[in-house]
Amino acid sequence: MSKIIKKIINPDKNKTGSQVVISVKEDDIHIAINQSSGISQIYLTYNQLCSLSRAINAAIDSHYQEYSNCMTKEKTSKIYIDDPIDW
Prior knowledge:
4-stranded antiparallel β-sheet
């Protein structure tokens, strides 16, 4: 069974936005990133994807530890099911 995941990465500061498409079919994972400079493609197995995920998480954690004091936090709010707000 094949599954396709699409995600838009919004522009941030001086970086342009991009589109990410991930195609998963058993042990064949294809990642395509469409940026203004062209399309980058990566072909991975599930184990390689897990290794990449750990590397990305380590980079995020390292960046957060170093710059967390000066970063603008993402604003979130709690939504309650019984809240009378119009959806």
